[in-house]
Design a protein that fits this description.
The complex is a heterodimer of chains A (144) and B (109). Chain A is 31% helix and 26% strand. Chain A is of the alpha+beta class. Chain A has one domain: Heat Shock Protein 90, CATH 3.30.565. In chain A, helix 1 packs antiparallel against helix 2 and helix 2 runs antiparallel to helix 3. With 109 residues, chain B is an alpha/beta fold. In chain B, 45% of the residues are buried. The mean pLDDT of chain B is 96. The chains are: A alpha+beta (144), B alpha/beta (109). Chains A and B meet through helix 1, helix 2 and helix 3 of A and helix 2 and helix 3 of B.
Chain lengths: 144, 109
């Protein structure tokens, strides 16, 4: 059976609550189109980390942040694009995504710094473009 | 952030009655954990069976709760679904926390 392209488009403002609502909307759309079994959980993890990163860094201190997500499914793979009107990535480079070192005392365990490690672990073909219009565009694939 | 706690055997079981622990609720989660485990004396089992999604901020909040409890009251986890478990494994936090297959397993030990 050939599955339809998911053709999901979600727009949100750059706040943590809007990120939560967007991911819940995504989940509803995927369930409604019977895509829940197509590695939708991993897609949700990756998108959550990408969006949190945009909100916490690119859009830090801003109240006019806008984010647009586009998701399509083809050939057992999710193709995702995320655009935002925030600041560019430091040095115009994607974070290296090295997971924090856990070889330390329990009470010194890191409480953050895992986001891009998760993205790098789960997504493929991650691309980044800074546009002259002042937008960031991130694209990646998540295999089913 | 709806949490409840109950003594079960030698453990204090804290159950999360929410479907998501994410960046939008991470601080509330940490605060509610402090309240629920204020009188803990021994191990604390965090029952995540109603949680179907955590992000790295939620993970960080669970780590913060573990640190809040200090070394005397270890924080253990139970009831992780596939996606929650994946976040713990990929970040290698599964090597930091004792993770039980089920709440029943966590209690009888």
């Amino acid at each position: 059976m050939i599955k339809p392209k998911a053709d999901i488009h979600i727009e949100l403002k750059g706040t943590p609550t809007e990120v939560r609502n967007a991911l819940e909307t995504l989940r509803h759309k995927l369930t409604a189109q019977e895509f829940a079994a197509c590695n939708a959980g991993v897609l949700e993890i990756v998108l959550a980390e990408v969006l949190n990163n945009v909100v916490e860094h690119a859009l830090a201190g801003r109240n006019d942040g806008q984010i647009v997500i586009a998701c399509n499914y083809a050939d057992q793979c999710w193709f995702v694009e995320v655009r935002d009107n925030g600041a560019e990535m430091p040095d115009n480079q994607l974070p290296d995504g090295v997971m924090p070192d856990l070889d330390r005392d329990l009470l010194d365990m890191p409480e953050g710094g895992f986001g891009w490690g998760l993205v790098r672990s789960l997504a493929q073909d991650i691309g980044y473009n800074r546009h002259a219009t002042g937008h960031n565009e991130l694209s990646f694939r998540v295999p089913d | 952030m709806n949490l409840s706690s109950k003594a079960e055997g030698d453990a204090l079981v804290v159950s999360v009655h929410e479907t998501r622990i994410d960046a939008s609720v991470a601080i509330q989660f940490k605060d509610r954990m402090r309240e629920e485990t204020d009188t803990a004396d021994g191990r604390v089992v965090l029952n995540l069976s109603e949680v179907d999604f955590i992000d790295s901020s939620g993970l960080g909040a669970i780590v913060a709760a573990m640190k809040q409890l200090g070394g005397k009251n270890p924080l253990e986890l139970a009831g992780l679904n596939e996606n929650v478990d994946k976040v713990f494994r990929l970040t290698r936090m599964d090597t930091v926390f004792r993770i039980h297959n089920s709440l029943d397993d966590a209690i009888v030990i």
